[in-house]
What does this fold into?
Amino acid sequence: MRWLELHNLSSRSLQFTAAPLPCAPNPEKKNRPMKITHLLFATDFCAPGRGRVFVPSLVLAVLLAGIPAVSAADTASECSKATGETSIAACSLLIESNRLSTADLAVTYNYRGVAYARSGEFDRAIADFGEAIRRYPKSALFYPYINRGDAYKAKNDVDRAIADYSEAIRLDPKSALAYNKRAHVWERKREYDRAITDYTEAIRIDPDGDGTTYYFRGVLYGLKRDLEPAIADFTAAIRLEPGLAAAYNSRGIVHQLKGDLDRAIADFGEEIRLEPMEPGGYRSRGNARVRKAEVDGAIVDFSEAIRLAPADAATYGYRGATYLMKGDLERAISDNSEAIRLDPRFAIAYHNRGKAYLLGSDFDRAITDFSEAIRLDPAFAMAYNNRGFAWESKGDRRRAIADYTEGVRLDPTNADAIAALKRLTP
It folds into this structure.
């Protein structure tokens, strides 16, 4: 897996901060299996009902507006959930009562903004967070800036998101949350050094906090091919979040890049233990086993990944390439054909099927597949080289020389193509 592919797996759903005060740590956070797409990106997000929910004066204001006591409490409680149309309606009722104090009105706008954001209505959310910012006391302004930054990020308005997160940092320079969030936006802008700087500051503020901060910084180190710091960060992430399967996968990839295949296989095995029903760990371990020439073990892993994700073209391609290494041409052709059926633009699958045909002396089919691989990927040097060999095997010296020449142009280090040209052009 390339580092960019790994990075793309690190998606984070937006989490909006409903409560105006941070929650207590969750004692159940540690030692649970975790998927990276489900992780809380920020450690001090509050679930509904945790932290400060509503101030008593808000309920009192609703009572003064003539709403019965039970209804007032229910309205305030429903608004504080900050989720769904019912919460939006409850918050709107409170706002329209015109009886809230300035501070309570700010809290209510924040709650409604969170509800809008969680419903995907980001423009309305931004407007409400702006109203909250106008009214919040300076000591609590941090929260609506964070939330508005998240809404801007959801709209891919990254510059405004950065501006809001930066303002949150100015208001609370000791907030690991704000540095984390700004780092993520720097990542989106591919300004990796700035993102690393922000993650580093978040870690300095809270070194034993959320392991995902180490994880995401490790991913960036990996993208920069700074492998030792990447391993250190993934190890720290695992120490803080022992159930974080993605950290084992990422550390395994780095070990594989370093050529330490035994450690890579061990990490992928731990990923599989944590997520036995996810195909990614089996794919990764299969690739590491291929590099160790453990062909049969790799086929077992790829087969399990296919069982779990039967529509994944890449895994059929991996297994087909492994059968090709083993010399099982019939199965190699079968797997690459299935990969092509699932993904008709899979150039490598055409190439590998062509290689199987070539090894089986079916030169016409080989040329057809190599030609399709070249059409899909005109810079595919190996496809030119192998098509050249097929032409040479058919006795078409002119076409063979043309393909070998193009293959060397695309990859001047290809010794086989260079030797073939010397052989054909004395």
Observations:
- Residues 1-70 have pLDDT under 50 and may be disordered.
